[in-house]
Amino acid sequence: MQRAIETALIDAGVSRETLPLLEGYVGLLDDWRQRMNLIGPREMDTIWERHVLDSAQMAGLTTAESRIVDIGSGAGFPGLVLACEAKTRGGDVTMVETTGKKCAFLQAVISELALPAKVVRSRIENAKAERVDFITARALAPLPKLLGYANPWMSKGATALFFKGERWQEELTDASDYWTLRHEAIPSRTSERGVILKIEEAHRV
Ligand SMILES: C[S@@+](CC[C@H](N)C(=O)[O-])C[C@H]1O[C@@H](n2cnc3c(N)ncnc32)[C@H](O)[C@@H]1O
User: Where is S-adenosyl-L-methionine bound in this sequence (predicted)?
Assistant: First the structure.
Protein backbone atom coordinates (compact mmCIF):
# COMPACT_ATOMS: atom_id res chain seq x y z
CA MET A 1 0.00 0.00 0.00
CA GLN A 2 1.35 3.42 -0.91
CA ARG A 3 2.16 5.81 1.94
CA ALA A 4 -0.26 8.47 0.62
CA ILE A 5 -3.13 5.98 0.58
CA GLU A 6 -2.26 4.78 4.08
CA THR A 7 -2.42 8.37 5.34
CA ALA A 8 -5.66 9.08 3.47
CA LEU A 9 -7.29 5.93 4.91
CA ILE A 10 -6.33 6.87 8.44
CA ASP A 11 -7.53 10.46 7.90
CA ALA A 12 -10.84 9.04 6.65
CA GLY A 13 -11.34 7.13 9.90
CA VAL A 14 -9.72 3.70 9.47
CA SER A 15 -7.63 2.34 12.34
CA ARG A 16 -3.96 1.58 11.63
CA GLU A 17 -4.52 -2.03 12.75
CA THR A 18 -7.11 -2.43 9.97
CA LEU A 19 -4.65 -1.68 7.15
CA PRO A 20 -3.22 -5.25 6.87
CA LEU A 21 -6.79 -6.61 6.70
CA LEU A 22 -7.58 -4.24 3.85
CA GLU A 23 -4.46 -5.44 2.04
CA GLY A 24 -5.67 -9.02 2.54
CA TYR A 25 -9.08 -8.14 1.11
CA VAL A 26 -7.67 -6.39 -1.95
CA GLY A 27 -5.29 -9.32 -2.54
CA LEU A 28 -8.20 -11.77 -2.50
CA LEU A 29 -10.22 -9.52 -4.80
CA ASP A 30 -7.33 -9.45 -7.25
CA ASP A 31 -7.11 -13.29 -7.19
CA TRP A 32 -10.83 -13.83 -7.60
CA ARG A 33 -11.44 -11.22 -10.26
CA GLN A 34 -9.06 -13.07 -12.55
CA ARG A 35 -11.34 -16.12 -12.36
CA MET A 36 -14.71 -14.37 -12.06
CA ASN A 37 -15.97 -11.13 -13.46
CA LEU A 38 -16.37 -9.47 -10.05
CA ILE A 39 -15.31 -5.95 -10.98
CA GLY A 40 -14.52 -4.25 -14.28
CA PRO A 41 -11.12 -5.06 -15.89
CA ARG A 42 -9.67 -1.55 -15.33
CA GLU A 43 -11.05 -1.07 -11.84
CA MET A 44 -8.13 -2.81 -10.12
CA ASP A 45 -5.86 0.07 -11.25
CA THR A 46 -7.67 2.52 -8.97
CA ILE A 47 -8.97 0.11 -6.38
CA TRP A 48 -7.38 1.91 -3.42
CA GLU A 49 -8.18 5.48 -4.46
CA ARG A 50 -11.69 4.90 -5.80
CA HIS A 51 -13.17 1.97 -3.94
CA VAL A 52 -11.32 1.34 -0.68
CA LEU A 53 -10.89 4.99 0.27
CA ASP A 54 -14.44 5.78 -0.79
CA SER A 55 -15.69 3.02 1.48
CA ALA A 56 -13.32 3.93 4.31
CA GLN A 57 -15.09 7.26 4.70
CA MET A 58 -18.01 5.32 6.11
CA ALA A 59 -15.80 3.97 8.89
CA GLY A 60 -15.31 7.54 10.09
CA LEU A 61 -19.08 8.06 10.22
CA THR A 62 -19.92 4.95 12.23
CA THR A 63 -18.96 4.32 15.82
CA ALA A 64 -17.09 1.55 17.65
CA GLU A 65 -19.28 -1.51 18.22
CA SER A 66 -21.67 -0.40 15.43
CA ARG A 67 -23.96 -3.06 13.97
CA ILE A 68 -24.20 -2.41 10.24
CA VAL A 69 -26.13 -3.82 7.29
CA ASP A 70 -24.77 -3.11 3.80
CA ILE A 71 -27.27 -3.68 0.98
CA GLY A 72 -26.25 -4.55 -2.59
CA SER A 73 -22.69 -5.25 -1.45
CA GLY A 74 -21.32 -6.52 -4.77
CA ALA A 75 -17.61 -7.26 -4.31
CA GLY A 76 -17.65 -5.71 -0.84
CA PHE A 77 -17.76 -1.92 -1.07
CA PRO A 78 -18.32 -0.65 1.54
CA GLY A 79 -19.41 -3.82 3.42
CA LEU A 80 -16.07 -5.66 3.57
CA VAL A 81 -14.11 -2.49 4.30
CA LEU A 82 -16.41 -1.84 7.26
CA ALA A 83 -16.09 -5.49 8.32
CA CYS A 84 -12.27 -5.14 8.35
CA GLU A 85 -12.64 -2.08 10.60
CA ALA A 86 -15.16 -3.92 12.81
CA LYS A 87 -12.57 -6.63 13.47
CA THR A 88 -10.33 -3.91 14.92
CA ARG A 89 -12.83 -1.89 16.94
CA GLY A 90 -15.86 -4.11 17.49
CA GLY A 91 -19.29 -4.40 15.95
CA ASP A 92 -20.40 -6.48 12.97
CA VAL A 93 -21.56 -6.23 9.37
CA THR A 94 -24.29 -8.08 7.46
CA MET A 95 -24.10 -7.92 3.67
CA VAL A 96 -27.22 -8.48 1.57
CA GLU A 97 -26.45 -9.45 -2.02
CA THR A 98 -28.41 -11.40 -4.58
CA THR A 99 -25.70 -12.62 -7.01
CA GLY A 100 -24.32 -16.04 -6.10
CA LYS A 101 -20.71 -15.59 -7.22
CA LYS A 102 -20.45 -12.28 -5.35
CA CYS A 103 -21.84 -13.94 -2.21
CA ALA A 104 -19.25 -16.72 -2.60
CA PHE A 105 -16.48 -14.12 -2.79
CA LEU A 106 -17.80 -12.13 0.20
CA GLN A 107 -17.99 -15.34 2.25
CA ALA A 108 -14.47 -16.38 1.21
CA VAL A 109 -13.03 -13.05 2.41
CA ILE A 110 -14.97 -13.25 5.69
CA SER A 111 -13.62 -16.78 6.32
CA GLU A 112 -10.05 -16.07 5.21
CA LEU A 113 -9.70 -12.91 7.32
CA ALA A 114 -11.97 -14.10 10.17
CA LEU A 115 -14.11 -10.97 9.93
CA PRO A 116 -17.12 -10.32 12.20
CA ALA A 117 -19.54 -10.38 9.26
CA LYS A 118 -22.10 -12.52 7.47
CA VAL A 119 -23.59 -12.70 4.00
CA VAL A 120 -27.29 -13.00 3.32
CA ARG A 121 -27.91 -14.21 -0.22
CA SER A 122 -31.24 -12.61 -0.98
CA ARG A 123 -32.97 -9.83 -2.76
CA ILE A 124 -33.06 -6.86 -0.40
CA GLU A 125 -36.85 -6.75 -0.65
CA ASN A 126 -37.03 -10.27 0.82
CA ALA A 127 -34.35 -9.98 3.50
CA LYS A 128 -35.30 -9.99 7.18
CA ALA A 129 -34.57 -6.59 8.75
CA GLU A 130 -32.75 -7.01 12.05
CA ARG A 131 -32.18 -4.09 14.38
CA VAL A 132 -28.90 -2.36 13.40
CA ASP A 133 -27.26 1.02 14.01
CA PHE A 134 -26.44 1.83 10.37
CA ILE A 135 -27.56 0.81 6.89
CA THR A 136 -25.13 1.54 4.05
CA ALA A 137 -25.33 1.41 0.26
CA ARG A 138 -23.11 2.41 -2.65
CA ALA A 139 -23.94 2.46 -6.36
CA LEU A 140 -27.22 0.65 -5.81
CA ALA A 141 -30.28 2.72 -6.79
CA PRO A 142 -31.65 6.26 -7.04
CA LEU A 143 -32.57 7.73 -3.66
CA PRO A 144 -36.37 7.22 -3.76
CA LYS A 145 -35.88 3.49 -4.50
CA LEU A 146 -33.02 3.22 -2.00
CA LEU A 147 -35.22 4.63 0.77
CA GLY A 148 -37.83 1.98 -0.04
CA TYR A 149 -35.17 -0.73 0.26
CA ALA A 150 -33.82 0.74 3.53
CA ASN A 151 -37.16 1.45 5.19
CA PRO A 152 -37.51 -1.88 7.08
CA TRP A 153 -34.17 -1.24 8.83
CA MET A 154 -34.64 2.54 9.23
CA SER A 155 -38.07 2.07 10.79
CA LYS A 156 -36.29 0.00 13.47
CA GLY A 157 -33.88 2.87 14.17
CA ALA A 158 -31.02 2.49 11.67
CA THR A 159 -29.29 5.62 10.36
CA ALA A 160 -28.66 5.46 6.59
CA LEU A 161 -25.32 6.31 5.00
CA PHE A 162 -25.67 6.43 1.21
CA PHE A 163 -22.97 7.37 -1.28
CA LYS A 164 -24.38 9.74 -3.85
CA GLY A 165 -22.81 11.30 -6.92
CA GLU A 166 -23.11 14.79 -8.31
CA ARG A 167 -26.88 14.51 -8.90
CA TRP A 168 -27.56 14.12 -5.18
CA GLN A 169 -29.59 17.33 -4.88
CA GLU A 170 -31.89 16.26 -7.72
CA GLU A 171 -32.29 12.87 -6.06
CA LEU A 172 -33.28 14.57 -2.80
CA THR A 173 -35.87 16.63 -4.67
CA ASP A 174 -37.25 13.47 -6.32
CA ALA A 175 -37.37 11.72 -2.96
CA SER A 176 -39.25 14.61 -1.34
CA ASP A 177 -42.37 13.61 -3.35
CA TYR A 178 -42.49 10.43 -1.28
CA TRP A 179 -40.41 10.99 1.86
CA THR A 180 -39.81 13.55 4.57
CA LEU A 181 -36.18 13.25 5.58
CA ARG A 182 -33.94 14.44 8.38
CA HIS A 183 -30.59 14.39 6.66
CA GLU A 184 -27.12 15.83 6.32
CA ALA A 185 -24.94 15.88 3.17
CA ILE A 186 -21.33 15.15 4.05
CA PRO A 187 -18.83 16.07 1.31
CA SER A 188 -17.04 13.06 -0.17
CA ARG A 189 -13.25 12.92 0.09
CA THR A 190 -13.02 11.00 -3.17
CA SER A 191 -15.45 12.77 -5.49
CA GLU A 192 -15.49 16.52 -5.95
CA ARG A 193 -19.25 16.91 -6.09
CA GLY A 194 -20.35 13.66 -4.47
CA VAL A 195 -21.60 13.33 -0.90
CA ILE A 196 -22.46 10.79 1.71
CA LEU A 197 -26.08 11.34 2.64
CA LYS A 198 -26.57 10.65 6.32
CA ILE A 199 -30.29 10.16 6.88
CA GLU A 200 -31.44 9.79 10.46
CA GLU A 201 -35.17 9.74 9.81
CA ALA A 202 -37.34 8.96 6.78
CA HIS A 203 -41.13 9.11 6.93
CA ARG A 204 -43.46 8.45 4.02
CA VAL A 205 -45.33 11.58 2.91
C1 LIG B 1 -23.48 -1.65 -9.02
S2 LIG B 1 -23.23 -2.91 -7.87
C3 LIG B 1 -22.47 -2.03 -6.53
C4 LIG B 1 -21.75 -2.95 -5.61
C5 LIG B 1 -21.02 -2.27 -4.46
N6 LIG B 1 -21.94 -1.70 -3.50
C7 LIG B 1 -20.04 -1.24 -4.96
O8 LIG B 1 -20.20 -0.05 -4.66
O9 LIG B 1 -19.06 -1.62 -5.64
C10 LIG B 1 -24.86 -3.24 -7.22
C11 LIG B 1 -24.95 -4.58 -6.50
O12 LIG B 1 -26.23 -4.69 -5.90
C13 LIG B 1 -26.77 -5.97 -6.16
N14 LIG B 1 -28.23 -5.79 -6.18
C15 LIG B 1 -28.94 -5.00 -7.04
N16 LIG B 1 -30.26 -5.05 -6.73
C17 LIG B 1 -30.38 -5.89 -5.68
C18 LIG B 1 -31.49 -6.35 -4.91
N19 LIG B 1 -32.73 -5.95 -5.15
N20 LIG B 1 -31.24 -7.21 -3.87
C21 LIG B 1 -29.96 -7.61 -3.60
N22 LIG B 1 -28.88 -7.21 -4.29
C23 LIG B 1 -29.08 -6.36 -5.32
C24 LIG B 1 -26.19 -6.39 -7.50
O25 LIG B 1 -26.14 -7.80 -7.62
C26 LIG B 1 -24.80 -5.76 -7.44
O27 LIG B 1 -23.86 -6.66 -6.89
Answer: 72, 77, 97-99, 124-125, 138
Please give the span between the terminal C-alpha atoms of the chain, in angstroms, as a whole number. 47
- Interval between CA 3 and ligand 1 midpoint (Å): 31
pLDDT tens for residues 66-84?
A: 999 999 999 999 999 999 9
User: Could you give the CA distance from residue 156 to residue 160 in angstroms, rounded to a whole number?
Assistant: 12
Per DSSP bridges, beta strands 195-204 and 159-164 are: antiparallel
Residue 119 near residue 98 (C-beta atoms within 8 A): no
Strand partners, 72: none
* CA 72 – ligand 1 centroid, Å: 3
Which residues make Cβ contacts (< 8 Å) with residue 6, sequence separation at least 6? 19
Residue having the nearest C-alpha atom to atom 18 of ligand 1: 123
The reply to whether ipTM tops 0.90 is yes
Encoded amino acid at 164, one letter: K
